[in-house]
Design goal:
mainly alpha; about 0% strand
Amino acid sequence: MDAEWDSLIPFTPLVSKSQQFPAAFVLMVIGFSLTGLFSLNKSVSVAVLLALSASLSLAFGAVFLICAVGVYV
């Protein structure tokens, strides 16, 4: 069992620790920009697309920001 454990490839995240804060910043800016566009929009079909993309970018930005400051969820 120890030989199998030692032969496994260690986990490497898709976004490295040094790139989590810039990724969080970019995603949060995109999310807040899309939120502003959502408030100015009058079309229902475009509003759904803006709302989904804004909420996803804000959610992932918040997770990256939390991880960047050292609170792992």
